[in-house]
Design brief:
This protein has 1 helix and 7 strands; from the N terminus they run H-E-E-E-E-E-E-E. The chain is mostly beta strands. Strand 4 and strand 5 form a beta hairpin. The longest helix is centred in the N-terminal third of the chain and has 7 residues.
Length: 118
């Protein structure tokens, strides 16, 4: 097959998303050939975000999906944000604490509305 024939076989494709959001990551460049299943973009909705916290296994029994949480920290300048627990990992992971102690911790995700932070 000649190069001219290959150029004529290419076509433009318009891509749309099923969700409203913002392109967080672009994995391709204009003019690049892709195959079925190629990841093109990562899209996220900034109005709702989550943070991951690692909870000690001894404390995770006190946490439930749907439970309200308050997020505070240095980056929030003494402000606080209300959130909700949306995920508790099914198993613990071994991590090393800042003091060098090996601990079993479970990932918990807290969803919050960050539209006021932008």
């Amino acid at each position: 097959m000649q190069l001219d024939e290959l150029k004529n076989k290419t076509r433009k494709v318009y891509v749309s998303s099923e969700i409203d959001g913002t392109v967080l990551t672009k994995y391709i460049d204009k003019g690049i050939a892709v195959t079925v299943g190629t990841l093109l973009f990562e899209i996220g909705e900034y109005n709702s975000a989550y943070i991951k916290v690692r909870v000690l296994t001894d404390d995770v029994g006190k946490i439930k999906i749907g439970q309200k949480a308050v997020i505070t920290g240095e980056l929030l300048n003494d402000e606080s944000i209300e959130g909700e627990v949306t995920y508790i990992a099914p198993k613990a992971e071994t991590v090393i604490s800042s003091l060098g102690v090996e601990q079993q911790r479970i990932e918990v995700r807290i969803k919050f509305d960050n539209s006021s932070l932008m």
